[in-house]
């Protein structure tokens, strides 16, 4: 039978409209307790999904009022309970300890403690949210224990959301075949700030970090999760490795162009390489200060919401105060909570809140001192600002290292903060234009994408929804169904020694 070209075109057009108005899904994003940091890493992507008419709601254990996330709220009110993540021990870890996978397991313990309280004291609220009948669950890969439980008993598909790169343990659970020994480790120690993959000892450390993170996440952290969820998930209890393995997709906020090239499967996408426009103009108070005609440039010091200078060891504060007082040809904006300490000179402005992104984008800003959270790291890239990182915890050292490698940052060891170190680092960046040139150059690579990553991520999400939240089985790697023994080729590697042994003994 002859079918006219016109008919074909109309047929295609019909399906195109059908696909364009793809089913709008009701998605529930569950993040860690009072999870502002993780929620704001993921919400740029959520806002993009809203444009495609998906409903995105945000769930977390809520201890106190927080910012507006631009999502429907399904919080579980935990006011009156102690949030274990806000313990005074945290300041001690931030200022005085080298962060490792052991701290990560402790954090899973904190999340489990709160989830146990939810299932004991806020059980109706937990089930009320669950019974809203979501189409798909989006799970924060770190510490959102009750969120995992909700998705697990709902029987609906779930997607893993990473506020940074795919962590080594989670990547191994998902059969990514990544050789983490050849990347910079997430928990890069301060003794290895000059990490290089060609160094044997550094690779040994990277492998140690990988296996440590695997064991502490799969067994130690999971033990607490099993306990927290025992009333809704009976024996053999909740398995975090299995939960990752069965997830139908993985989205991360780590920009591909920033991270070293790494193997990936069909069910992985990084939406992270975007720049956020700052919509509001710079506050007049800051603008006047920055644009002072005598200023050689602005230096911004901002260490994120977690760090409280009042709790910093005294020598930290003293070193910073001495050095910034000396740099009187510059204008310095220092973000700190509480009262302005005495002794700071007039060219130093302190404020408990600073419009960080707008200041970074101002063309008089010449240097940023940051802790190296991923959001700040991206603002550094998008505003092309030379930076000195003073990483405190989590993957901040690794983020700092990634920018240092690109040639527009230096890293300071938090254990060695003194006037000379700080002064040397700052003068080095301020006096050498190559830091600024490298920052400009990297920004052009970063923005050079075939399709804006948020659009491509939305496309992939829509396709997932079209298939009911889980792709057909051939879409997923076979390694998900094989044991580690097979996937890591251990079975093949032992053949040769066994044959040799056989020949020798024969
Ligand atoms: C979203 O819904 C609006 C109103 O129903 C419709 O006009 C628009 O085309 C939809 N957008 C998409 C991407 O489906
Ligand atoms: C790397 O740093 C360590 C300690 O900071 C130092 O001992 C070592 O010499 C450095 N190695 C290189 C190749 O720079
Ligand atoms: C900085 O921006 C101002 C306007 O905001 C402009 O007049 C000036 O030329 C810019 N300076 C440089 C060096 O780009």
Automatic annotation (TrEMBL):
Entry's localization field: Membrane
Highest rank taxon of the organism: Eukaryota
Molecular function terms, GO-annotated: glucuronosyltransferase activity; UDP-glycosyltransferase activity
Keyword S-adenosyl-L-methionine in record: no
Signal peptide residues on this chain, from the entry's feature table: 1-24
Main location: membrane
Entry's transmembrane regions: 482-505
InterPro entries, per the entry: UDP-glycosyltransferase (IPR050271), UDP_glucos_trans (IPR002213)
Pfam families, per database record: UDPGT (PF00201)
Cellular component per GO, a single term: membrane
Membrane topology category: Single-pass membrane protein
Alphabetical UniProt keywords: Glycoprotein, Glycosyltransferase, Membrane, Signal, Transferase, Transmembrane, Transmembrane helix
Family to which this protein belongs: Belongs to the UDP-glycosyltransferase family.
UniProt protein name: glucuronosyltransferase
Organism: Caenorhabditis elegans
């Amino acid at each position: 039978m002859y079918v006219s070209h016109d008919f074909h075109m109309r047929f295609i057009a019909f399906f195109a409209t059908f696909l364009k108005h793809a089913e709008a899904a009701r998605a529930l994003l569950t993040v860690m307790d009072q999870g502002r940091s993780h929620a704001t890493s993921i919400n740029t992507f959520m806002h993009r999904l809203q444009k495609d008419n998906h409903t995105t709601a945000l769930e977390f254990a809520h201890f106190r009022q927080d910012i507006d996330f631009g999502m429907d709220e399904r919080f579980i009110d935990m006011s009156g309970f102690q949030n274990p993540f806000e313990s005074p021990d945290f300041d001690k870890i931030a200022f005085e300890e080298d962060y490792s996978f052991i701290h990560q397991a402790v954090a899973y313990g904190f999340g489990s403690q709160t989830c146990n309280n939810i299932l004991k004291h806020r059980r109706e609220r937990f089930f009320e949210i669950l019974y809203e009948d979501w189409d798909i669950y989006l799970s924060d890969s770190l510490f959102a224990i009750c969120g995992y439980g909700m998705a697990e008993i709902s029987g609906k598909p779930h997607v893993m959301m990473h506020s940074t790169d795919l962590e080594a343990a989670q990547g191994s659970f998902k059969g990514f075949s990544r050789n983490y020994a050849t990347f910079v480790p997430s928990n890069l120690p301060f003794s290895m700030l000059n990490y290089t993959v060609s160094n044997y000892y550094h690779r040994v450390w990277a492998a140690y970090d990988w296996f440590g993170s695997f064991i502490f996440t799969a067994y130690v952290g999971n033990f607490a999760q099993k306990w927290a969820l025992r009333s809704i998930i009976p024996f053999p209890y909740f398995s975090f490795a299995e939960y990752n393995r069965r997830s139908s997709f993985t989205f991360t906020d780590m920009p591909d162009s920033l991270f070293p090239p790494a193997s990936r499967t069909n069910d992985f996408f990084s939406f992270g390489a975007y720049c956020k426009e700052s919509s509001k103009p710079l506050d007049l108070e800051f603008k006047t200060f920055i644009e002072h005609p005598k200023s050689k440039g602005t230096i911004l010091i901002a260490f994120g919401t977690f760090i409280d200078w009042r709790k910093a060891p005294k020598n930290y504060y003293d070193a910073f105060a001495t050095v910034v007082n000396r740099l009187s040809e510059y204008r310095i904006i220092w973000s700190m909570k509480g009262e302005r300490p005495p002794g700071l000179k007039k060219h130093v402005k302190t404020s408990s809140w600073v419009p960080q992104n707008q200041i970074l984008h101002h063309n008089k800003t010449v240097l940023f001192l940051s802790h190296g959270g991923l959001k700040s790291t991206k603002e550094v890239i998008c505003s092309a600002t030379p930076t000195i990182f003073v990483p405190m915890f989590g993957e901040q050292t690794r983020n700092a290292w990634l920018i240092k490698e690109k040639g527009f940052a230096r890293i300071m060891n938090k254990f060695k903060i003194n006037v000379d170190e700080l002064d040397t680092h700052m003068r080095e960046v301020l006096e050498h234009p190559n830091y600024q040139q490298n920052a400009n150059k990297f920004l052009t690579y970063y923005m050079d994408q075939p399709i804006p990553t948020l659009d491509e991520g939305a496309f992939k999400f829509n396709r997932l929804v079209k298939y009911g939240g889980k792709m057909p089985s051939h879409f997923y790697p076979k390694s998900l169904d094989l044991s580690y023994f097979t996937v890591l080729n251990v079975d093949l590697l032992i053949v040769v020694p066994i044959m040799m042994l056989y020949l020798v003994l024969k």
